[in-house]
Amino acid sequence: MTPEAQQMIEQIVRLIRKPNLELDENTPLVSSGLIDSMALVDLLQKLEDLTHTRIPPGKVQPKDLDTVALMFATAQRVGKPRK
Amino acid sequence: MNQFRNLIEALDTAPPDRPFVTAWIDEDERETVTFAEFRRRARFQASVLRNNNVTAGDLVVLIMPQGIPSMTVFAGAMMLGAVPAFLAYPNFKVEPSKYRSGLAGVTANLNAKLVVIDEGFPNELLSYVSLDDQTTVLHASDGKVAAEEIEIPTLEHLPGALAFIQHSAGTTGLQKGVALTHGAVLRQLEHLAQALKIDPHTDRIYNWLPLYHDMGLIACFMLPMVCHLTVVMQSPLDWVMHPETMLQIISEYRCTLAWMPNFAFQFVPRRTPRSRWAQYDLSSVRALINCSEPVRASSVHEFQSAFASIGLKADAMQSSYAMAENVFAVTQSDISQPLGPACIWADAQQFRTKHLIVPVVEGATGSLSFKSSGQLLPDNEVRIVSDSGELLEDAHVGEILIKSDSLFEGYYNRPDLTANALIDGWFHTGDLGFYFENELFVVGRKKDLLIVGGENLYPQDIEEIVASHAAIHDGRVVALGVYNPDLGTDDIVVVAEVEQTGLLTSPAEIERELRNLVVAGLGVAVRTIFLKPPKWIVKSTAGKASRSATREKMLHEHPELNLESEESQFT
User: Fold this and answer.
1) Where does the pLDDT of residue A17 fall: very low under 50, low under 70, confident under 90, or very high at 90 and above?
2) Strand residues in A1-83 grouped as ranges (E)
3) Cα→Cα distances B186→B21, B43, B144, B322, Å
């Protein structure tokens, strides 16, 4: 796992306030009800910071952010390098 | 605008070389079309619709991302005399299940001839679009490809013909379609342009509002189309992700007019790092209009004082009372007033027990302040009525009824809803307010009101007091009325998020302080306070605490409250 993915997992654990929860890169987040879609605004902003990209939010659907692995794949697919 | 028979005539007479829409995506990506180019693309879209058998009177539903393509399809449909309606496009922050049920409900009611989507529309959602044998789905193109000019016959529609359908606020299946005629829209725009002293040579609109909402559709698409202004717009999603871009766009394009709901007046300064404020310049803005939620003096003050140092003028802070059912605005504050809309201070006790406004000096103990939504537009009338329907005089608080020359004729395909809302030509808004010295003040939604021992309490007042405590996260407080059958009145329940989880280890002290604050400020006791960790309260669009969704969550986690539905208590 990359350090960025690890940081994202830590952010999610903070967000959902369940410190003992085991999360990995492939844990379903939205579809399992662990996080609600409103929290995705914060996670998308975090993803932009971690990947140094600007992610056009119109090109992202909830399923693109369902796991940490998918989040980074989405950033790679639609993210633009940040100035 | 009275010279036009319909909205397309107004578009046709716009100066060809003037920029109409700039779609701002980010620093590197933006596109501007002139009126001539917009018309060319709209004619192309009209020809595509025509090839799909769309004719005058047909309903065309648009589910496309906000941008120039969706606007040209909308105008193209009107060129054929068809009736377009924008629906919200799915996005990552809308709960998929909620979106699906909303989509199914709205499209079933509209019974469209054609549903236009873009190539990015998720296939799995298509099954939720109500499609019968008569409805087809079309994937729209951006309209840039048309090589030759396409001829579309001049629209001969008279003012009484249906122009489009806009939906009343909300994104769920409860949305109501409001059918509007060309004449109603043109009359509204005439009044609005006059009140705002619109000058097509110098005015430029900034917009992040969705076009499926009246504030976006009327003020930021129809107004510039008919008055021949330029609008610079971004998508609501881009704005919510990066609210700072609003400052960037206004500065770069020297925009003069914008509309926003009340919460945005806090959201933008709070989400923009203070260190970057000085990069921007808001001196071009002549009216920033607070609209579609009750106007809070504190929110307006927060925005104005944050950005005064970068040129934002105090007299640019304006307000309006608007709704889809009236096309848009009912009132607009007088933009020539150097001090902005009137603010009055009134005795809180008289307000709550007698529903009466008794003016007191500014900031007096036990007083409340109200910000005006402005004066009635020409040919708009307001009545304030009591619960029993009795007409109230000035300074009395009651339900706002309106009548105007731009009022809708009914909800589309919903005679049942129309019959409840439109009675003897008066639209019952469900909003509470009062009329004072020729200005309308809106104080809240009738169904949000808490009635405690015969006193009317507005949840916003309780929430503002609770949020002022240092341990409580600002803007993350919801006050609810819970009917107490033993007492026959509402108990006040407050849910508040603490700044950090650590504060929850000793909640008793904070709770005691909060109770004291509410008693001192409003003279009422809170029955139960729930302190919750950060992020507990359910947020709605752009991070605002959602009262109804938080209520549902409370009911789920605290069944002992036995919350009854708000509607059953008050309507």
Assistant:
1) low
2) 53-54, 80-81
3) 20, 21, 29, 16
Query: At CA B372, angle to CA B371 and CA B374, rounded to 5?
Result: 155
A37·B95 Cβ contact <8 A: yes
B240 in reach of chain A (CB within 8 A): yes
Does B506 lie in the same domain as B432? no
Nearest Cα neighbor of B116 from B81, B80, B70 is B70
- Most confidently modeled range among A17-31, B222-236, B257-271, B434-448: B222-236
Give the range among A6-15, B386-395, B559-568 with minimum mean pLDDT. B559-568
Query: Which pTM value belongs to this model?
Result: 0.83
- Give the domains, in start order, of chain A with CATH numbers: 3-81 (1.10.1200.10)
The radius of gyration of chain B's CA atoms, rounded to the nearest angstrom, is: 24
Q: Is the ipTM of this complex over 0.85?
A: no
- Do A39 and B26 count as a contact with CB atoms less than 8 A apart? no
Residues B355 and B437 in one domain: yes
Q: B147, B181, B215 — which closes off a domain?
A: B181
Say yes or no: B52 and B147 in one domain. yes
Boundaries of domain holding B353: 343-373+380-401+426-448
CATH of the domain at B86: 3.40.50.980
Claim to verify: residue B44 and residue B176 sit in the same structural domain: yes
Q: Do B96 and A37 touch (CB under 8 A)?
A: yes
Q: Which of A36, A45, A56 sits opposite B25 (nearest CB)?
A: A56
Of A54, A61, A83, the CB nearest to B92: A61
